[in-house]
Design brief:
Layout (H helix, E strand, L loop, with lengths): L2 E5 L2 E3 L4 E3 L1 E5 L2 E6 L6 E4 L4 E4 L1 E6 L4 E2 L2 E2 L4 H10 L2 E8 L7 H11 L6 E7 L5 H12 L4 E5 L10 H14 L2 E5 L3 H13 L6 H5 L3 H18 L3 E3 L5 H12 L4 E3 L3 H5 L10 H6 L9 H13 L14 H4 L19 H10 L6 H15 L17 E11 L18 E11 L2 E5 L2 E2 L23 H6 L15
Parallel strand pairs: 1-6, 2-7, 8-11, 11-12, 12-13, 13-14, 14-15, 15-16
Antiparallel strand pairs: 1-4, 2-3, 4-5, 7-17, 9-10, 17-18, 18-19, 19-20
Bound molecules: dihydropyrimidine-2,4(1H,3H)-dione (DUC) and zinc ion (ZN) (3 copies).
One zinc ion binds next to loops.
Amino acid sequence: MASKVIKGGTVVTADLTYEADVKIEGGVITEIGPNLSGDEVLDAAGCYVMPGGIDPHTHMEMPFMGTYSSDDFESGTRAALAGGTTMVVDFCLPSPGQSLLEARQMWDNKSTRANCDYSFHMAVTWWSEQVFNEMPEITKQGINSFKHFMAYKGALMVEDDEMYASFKRCAEIGALPLVHAENGDVVAQLQEQLLAEGNNGPEAHAYSRPPEVEGEATNRAIMIADMAGVPVYIVHTSSEQAHEAIRRARQNGIRVFGEPLIQHLTLDDSEYANKDWDHAARRVMSPPFRNKKHQDSLWAGLQSGSLQVVATDHCAFTTEQKRYGVGDFTKIPNGTGGLEDRMPMLWTYGVNTGRLTMNEFVAVTSTNSAKILNMYPKKGAVLVGADADLVVWDPNKEKTIEASTQQSAIDYNVFEGKHVKGLPRFTLSRGKVVIDDGAVKTEEGHGKFVEREAFSSTNKALSKWKELTAPRKVERTGIPASGV
Ligand code: DUC
Ligand code: ZN
Ligand code: ZN
Ligand code: ZN
């Protein structure tokens, strides 16, 4: 079997930094140490050899708001690899009323074109006995996480009683619930009010989704998960209020995870005000970009460990698609891209500024997702036996981000003009060199589905609340004849 050796680099993992060569055979790492030899040598002098990035939150070719997101599994995963991300976790999204198994089949069909490995979360967009019955089968098929939308009223949103029932089902079958936490009822009222007042431009999108709607819903989701006895993962944590709810719960022993996006960490709400319509609409996503106070909170969360992973929620729409919302901001398709830029932007604004160590960078871009989503150490590790999903990171390689040179299929980039320092020299997907000093050598269909098994029964919520309020039968005497 032909072998490859990544030579002369410094291995950086979530725990350690050390000089070593890395040998690859049959798509996996077979040796790590000094002076290794192989059939092919990749020069890593001056570079860091890290686990390839894992983006735990993407939407390829997703039917949404009257259209489909414009990056499919081919262009989306090509963009991922160009930026050092070697795996994505996408969402199967049944339309309300649709079988989960049928939705799974649809996403299987779309993902045959993937250039890198991928996995799925399953969305619970409606609740019924059928959904309840299908959930264990979905988990048997390698999907151990179920996403719930507390927003998008009248479309994807589930009610609290449905969420509680679904969370309890997750607890039974060893699955992890995920939540899009915004109060959908309040958002719907604010949208109506803003439109009635004549605020129909893209900046009104941000006013309709203030941090409070996120803070309230995040806290509600966490408390409901705790009562259901299951950990919970909050997607796209964007505000201090949401972060505060997560922090407080973690201090109380509740197992909850928070996922800031690279967009919220590096772009703020000045992108909406006094900007031309296209500029602002291209940045319409939910939750919207926030002010500096919220950004500081998210960075602090990554530094202290109260927030665990950095994702993109990559959901790319062209300018033409964004213009569906001219005259009514509620019709602007929600979503931004970021897959190609997540790692270079986080390195530039995190590691180069001293906010994150290199090891923390690896943890939040890769290893923590692999652990939380139950695929470690197959993914997210530089260890013998792990998949050779690796990035050889050149800390001195620089570029200015431009839509004209990006892999994504859309016509703009929300990070346009940002200068990044720190980029892949090589990206490897299961041992195959797919990015070679900027040259794209991806292979459509190379990506494989990664099964994620159910969690063990010990992965439960650990709130003290349970001990204090465990139901007990109380012996009573002197029961009054009348209940009054
Ligand atoms: N938010 C977005 O901006 N796009 C996709 C779905 C979501 O919740
Ligand atoms: Zn969401
Ligand atoms: Zn999303
Ligand atoms: Zn292949």
